[in-house]
Design a protein that fits this description.
By secondary structure, the protein is mainly alpha-helical. The chain is 80% helix and 0% strand. It has helices at 3-10, 13-27, 37-51, 53-67, 72-80, 82-105, 112-147.
Length: 153
């Protein structure tokens, strides 16, 4: 496999988390009374998989288009800045969705300000943290696949 092919396929990694999240919420009894710290962390991780689905999809399409005809070094540079891009794409996406929903119903959504503040305040730093977690996982997988000679440069 070529390095650039791996880089494009690595964009699918967050979607595997989404698939796992569907199973988590479908088959898990969400009993919050007896919840452990690990279960709480898993709940939030799975919640954020759904939370970022739309903005990440927008970003992934942009990254795919931008990576066409680039070398692996150029693609790596583009991908390394992706969490910063997601930091701006996510709040804008949530604001746009809330405005569209509000306008389509011709009703004012009660608490829309709190939802928008939450989307902006939470999604910006979380985009950096979770984004770089996925970047680190992708780079570790890349190095491992290079060592076993599955990826050629």
């Amino acid at each position: 496999m070529k390095s650039t092919t791996y880089a494009r396929l690595a964009l699918l990694l967050p979607y595997f988390t989404l698939i796992e999240s569907i199973g988590y919420f479908t088959y898990n009894d969400l009993d919050t009374k007896n919840e452990t710290l690990l279960q709480s962390a898993n709940f939030f991780w799975n919640f954020f998989a759904f939370f970022w689905f739309v903005p990440y999809t927008i970003l992934a399409i942009y990254l795919l288009i931008r990576s066409i005809g680039k070398t692996i070094e150029q693609v790596r540079s583009i991908y390394m800045s992706a969490p910063f891009a997601l930091m701006f794409v996510a709040p804008v996406t949530y604001i746009a969705i809330m405005i569209i929903v509000s306008l389509s119903d011709n009703t004012y959504i009660k608490g829309i300000e709190l939802i928008l503040i939450f989307a902006t305040v939470v999604s910006a730093p979380a985009s950096l943290i979770i984004g770089y977690i996925f970047v680190a996982i992708s780079l570790l997988l890349y190095r491992g696949l290079q060592k076993i000679k599955f990826i050629r440069d």
